[in-house]
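Readers of this paper often ask what the protein records in our data store actually look like. An entry from our holdings is shown next, in its original layout:
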Amino acid sequence: MTALTPHADRLLPADPATRDVARRLYGEVADSPIYSPHGHVDARMLLDDDPFGNPASLLITPDHYVTRLLHAVGVPLGELGLGPAAGQASGREIWRRLCAHWDVFLGTPVRYWFESEFSEVFGLTDAPSQQTADALYDQLLEALGRPEFRPRALFDRFRISVLATTDDPADDLSAHLALRDDPTFTGRVVPTFRADRYMHPLESTWRAKLDALSQASNIDTGSYAGLLDALRSRRAYFKAAGGTATDTGVIDAGSEPLEAAVAERIHREALLGPITQGEADAYRRNMLYRLAEMSADDGLVMQLHAGVIRNHHKPTFEAFGPDTGHDLPAVGGYTVPLTPILRDFGVNSTFRLVLFTVDETLFSREIAPLAGFYPSVYAGAPWWYLDSPAGIARYRSAVTDSVGFTKTSGFIDDTRAYCSIPARHDMSRRVDAGYLASLVVTHQLSEDDALGVARRLVKDIPVGTFRL
């Protein structure tokens, strides 16, 4: 039986002199509060504060990092609690699937996160395996029944200061507002405005989304002008509810604006019947420009991630829905596609644009140079396929020469897996400590300067970048 004992020096440099410096830097920030400006935890969970159902529904089923790799080695998604057959697999059976395939995660950040949270959050001492599966499940189930493992107690235990969610413009934000006004809740949970679904007139859900937005804003979205007015209205609502940022995911970062009459025609024709792919692409790129225009006006920080092919496997999407592990990277870029936005708003003091990518060649080739000139542009942290220890280290090497530390975003956990939040932030703090230590021992930074940067990376930089 293998013991579950994460090493105190995990992820710190192997060289003794560098590791000693990294230990000191990490020790200064290890217990710092968490500022999470981009994530997907449901605010309703914290408002209701109900006990979690079972270990599988908390730790496995909602986390596409986990389910995608299990699916890749032959575990059907239905056996992991997803899709039409979700109710046929019990929480214990889903947990057994993970334990039987524990070695699949060797070398991945998922394994690191799991080992940290199993040990440090739940106090497990044995590693998952087929032999230990049932005993570990019983231990986790017993823990989840205790008051200290309810959502709000964990929020405090995780030292979360600010947690951003991701929300549709038509959302009433009732959970956010109730948490804000609840004197017994001491943290901050802020909404993030995500309007992707309103940019794609060829999507089958577009008309229904327009109707929902119209109802939420009390503005007719049957016209393009009405849609823009409704989005502005809801942005103001989000801002009043504590929101500081928007989030936009697109296949490419094209942002050429259209004349209002042209956009109005495409909008009208899309409501009446099919339009061409070219017209839909032009509409989407125009909408990206308009969202940037709105951010330049209202000051909501614009997060942009381009170059992801959503729902790559159509049969899986039709059976299990979105966010089930088959959104895949595409080749993309920012410098040329964002020319219209940066031409008009790049030096606007109100506008702020945080660029993310799943193509790490963009870090040094485009994102860092853009952030190194434009006051509005910030280099977003490694995200999704890149938020691994090696990916974070490569990011620092790629962007620091061009843009330093100040024009970066701070760590982004981007997770629905609530209990992994502290493990993910701890991973980033350890890797950053190692990178800063390497600069100290090569006499590029003093240890005092490195300590200042380490502290800023966990608080001042995310708070400043996202206007928290």
User: Anything to note?
Assistant: The longest strand covers residues 245-250. The chain has 20 helices and ten strands.
